[in-house]
Amino acid sequence: MDDPRGDMERHESPPSLWPVGAIGAALVAVCGFLWARDVVRGGRATTVATAPPLEEGRAPGAPPIPADKGEAAMPEPAPGERFPRNVFLENATLGLGAIIGGVVTLPVIGFAVMPAFLKQHSHEVDLGPISNFQEGQYVVATFLREPSQGEVSRRTAFIRNNGLLHGKPSFTCISNRCAHLGCPVQPGGPTFDDKSKTVKTPSGQVSLIPSLPAAGFICPCHGGTYDQEGNRIAGPPVRGLDRFEFWIRNGNLILGNTYSVAQVTGTGANAEIKRYTLTGPGQHVDGIESWLYPLQPPH
Question: I need a surface site. Which of 102, 116, 121, 205 has the fewest CB within 10 A?
Answer without folding.
Answer: 121
